[in-house]
């Protein structure tokens, strides 16, 4: 019986689709599948509404009444459709849809659909590209507006089109743009309680303004502000990670990177090389920028722990209440906000390697006590843990602060001081390194030439004077910064005072402004004499020490003393 029905359906030259009571397709004839452009298998068992979204078939079945000669758009085609309920024994058991192309549109189908597709694509583009776009004619009447703008304004396309722009958009200036013919780009505009950024452009035909186009560039300034804020935070984070990465990648500093010209520096390097091989703690003292971290790296690299991690903790930079978690780590659930799975502390991470405690003088007292326990017992216990973990670490500590004074003031534990101070390396500031700083400057210039592709050959006599007179509070870091700037300004040849930062020059002018003459020889001699006297005073007349301090040979010092007729109390120091 069913076979006969389907054979019968094939003889009908119209598209036929039969659905069951639920609206699921049970039969479709060949003409139907061809008109719909879908294979029979793609249609059977699918809800009719998923094939023809606007279909009123369900309603037809519910009401038991046919809907006849309805025109519907199906993709690019237009169909004329009859829908009938199938009634058996007074009961609706399904529905039948009979359809054909709207008579007369068959031949036009392609041309018409292409135009429509283009228009459709254009509309989609306008919707997607712009948060809001509106166009009006020369009288200010809206001729086009997209859905996003309408949603934003609380209106619809149908309501807006044909009305004057001022009736639809508050604070608009589109009518002004039509009058002046001048574009207004990226203007702030308030609509309701929101601030938006808009651009308005006149539409021209030759010289004549025939309308205007407005577009919303940013539909919510709050969003823009939060984007800018997020961007700023990301920039800062990126900066931080860049520095950290530089620190990690650059962690391979060795003794080859350390420049040492002055005898005190040479001694420090010798000492550091010797103690690198031991497992003992090291305390490095020195002012800011004297190379404490560089020495710590070099000791680690030279030691038999160089394969292990070099972990730096900057005690001055970590907030007090975070320091314990940072150093000791914690177990999962140790406190609110503790990370899942817990987190190892820096001490644990330095296992088998070196723990560099920078700025140890800034470590809070309670943390000092806990650190001392780790050093004595060689065990570390995470916050919230029940068992300690044994660790094998080598500690290098550094500070620019006077630890002995801090001990007297009760700010640093004496027992920890002795634990750390198995070996002590003291790095001299530049201002006591005398003439040798000029050799350091030359060394730095060579290094910078290689890094910055410059070709600077050295420093002029005037720059030497400036360098020797400057106290270099930032030590080698400061000198490196000064030279980095200078070699880039000069590019080649020798560095002259104009390549130096103004603060170095200002000092020079101030220093000599009271009694300076233009006799270079005489001025240099005067300065040399002053420096010699200062060095002798600092060494309480000891010539050997003074020569060392100035970085010159003893014989040279004697010659200079004679030249300047400087008498030294020989009876005390020989
Ligand atoms: N003797 C040296 N030879 C070559 N470069 C040096 C020397 N001393 C310091 N520097 C360079 O100077 C800069 C500062 O060095 P470092 O960070 O080791 O100093 P620091 O004493 O740890 O400073 P701070 O106490 O301010 O942290 C680094 O770029 C380092 O490479």
From TrEMBL:
Stretches assigned to coiled coil: none
Record PROSITE patterns: PAS (PS50112), SIGMA54_INTERACT_1 (PS00675), SIGMA54_INTERACT_4 (PS50045)
Keywords assigned: ATP-binding, Nucleotide-binding, Transcription, Transcription regulation
Stored InterPro entries: AAA+_ATPase, AAA_lid_NorR, Homeodomain-like_sf, HTH_Fis, P-loop_NTPase, PAS, PAS-like_dom_sf, PAS_fold
Keyword field contains Transcription regulation: yes
Location of the Sigma-54 factor interaction domain: 258-488
BP terms from Gene Ontology: regulation of DNA-templated transcription
SMART domains, alphabetized: AAA (SM00382), PAS (SM00091)
Record's keyword annotation contains Transcription regulation: yes
Signal peptide: none
One Pfam entry name: PAS
Highest taxon of source: Bacteria
GO MF annotation: an example: ATP binding
Domain PAS per the UniProt entry, residue ranges: 1-75, 118-192
PANTHER family registered for this protein in UniProt: C4-DICARBOXYLATE TRANSPORT TRANSCRIPTIONAL REGULATORY PROTEIN DCTD (PTHR32071:SF57), TRANSCRIPTIONAL REGULATORY PROTEIN (PTHR32071)
Protein name: Sigma 54-interacting transcriptional regulator
């Amino acid at each position: 019986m069913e076979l006969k029905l389907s054979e019968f359906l094939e003889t009908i030259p119209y598209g036929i689709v039969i659905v069951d009571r639920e609206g699921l397709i049970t039969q479709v004839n060949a003409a139907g599948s061809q008109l719909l452009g879908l294979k029979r298998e793609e249609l059977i068992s699918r809800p009719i509404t998923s094939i023809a979204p606007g279909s009123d078939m369900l309603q037809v079945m519910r009401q038991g009444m046919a809907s006849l000669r309805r025109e519907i758009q199906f993709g690019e085609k237009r169909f004329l459709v009859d829908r009938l309920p199938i009634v058996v024994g007074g009961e609706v058991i399904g529905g039948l849809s009979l359809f054909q192309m709207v008579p007369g549109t068959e031949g036009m189908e392609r041309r018409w659909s292409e135009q429509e597709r283009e228009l459709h694509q254009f509309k989609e583009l306008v919707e997607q590209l712009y948060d809001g776009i509106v166009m009006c004619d020369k009288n200010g009447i809206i001729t086009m507006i997209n859905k996003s703008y309408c949603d934003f304004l609380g209106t619809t396309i149908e309501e807006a089109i044909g009305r004057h722009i001022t009736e639809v958009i508050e604070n608009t200036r589109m009518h002004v743009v039509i009058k002046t013919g001048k574009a207004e780009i990226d203007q702030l505009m308030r609509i309701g309680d929101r601030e938006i950024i808009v651009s308005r452009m006149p539409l021209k035909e030759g010289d004549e303004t025939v309308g205007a186009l407005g577009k919303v560039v940013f539909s919510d300034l709050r969003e823009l502000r939060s984007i800018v804020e997020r961007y700023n935070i990301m920039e800062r984070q990126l900066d931080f990670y860049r520095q950290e990465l530089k620190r990690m990648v650059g962690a391979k500093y060795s003794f080859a990177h350390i420049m040492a010209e002055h005898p005190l520096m040479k001694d420090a390097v010798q000492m550091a090389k010797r103690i690198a091989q031991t497992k003992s703690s090291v305390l490095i003292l020195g002012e800011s920028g004297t190379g404490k971290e560089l020495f710590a790296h070099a000791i680690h690299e030279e030691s038999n722990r160089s394969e292990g991690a070099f972990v730096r903790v900057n005690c001055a930079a970590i907030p007090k209440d975070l320091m314990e978690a940072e150093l000791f780590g914690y177990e999962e659930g140790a406190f609110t906000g503790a990370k899942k799975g817990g987190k190892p502390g820096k001490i644990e991470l330095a296992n088998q390697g070196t723990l560099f405690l920078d700025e140890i003088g800034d470590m809070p007292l309670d943390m000092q006590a806990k650190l001392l326990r780790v050093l004595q017992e060689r065990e570390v216990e995470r916050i919230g843990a029940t068992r300690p973990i044994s660790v094998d670490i080598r500690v290098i500590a550094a500070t620019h602060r006077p630890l002995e004074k801090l001990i007297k003031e009760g700010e640093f534990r004496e027992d920890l001081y002795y634990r750390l101070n198995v070996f002590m390396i003291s790095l001299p500031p530049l201002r006591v390194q005398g003439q040798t700083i000029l050799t350091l400057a030359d060394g730095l210039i060579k290094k910078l030439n290689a890094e910055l592709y410059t070709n600077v050959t050295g420093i002029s006599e005037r720059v030497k004077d400036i360098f020797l007179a400057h106290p270099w509070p930032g030590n080698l870091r400061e000198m490196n910064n000064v030279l980095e700037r200078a070699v880039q300004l000069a590019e080649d040849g020798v560095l002259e005072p104009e390549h130096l930062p103004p603060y170095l020059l200002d000092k020079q002018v101030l220093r000599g402004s009271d009694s300076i003459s233009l006799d270079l020889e005489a001025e240099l001699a005067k300065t040399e004499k002053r420096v010699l006297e200062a060095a002798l005073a600092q060494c309480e007349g000891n010539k050997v020490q003074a020569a060392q301090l100035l970085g010159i040979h003893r014989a040279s010092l004697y010659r200079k003393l004679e030249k300047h007729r400087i008498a030294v109390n020989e009876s005390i120091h020989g």
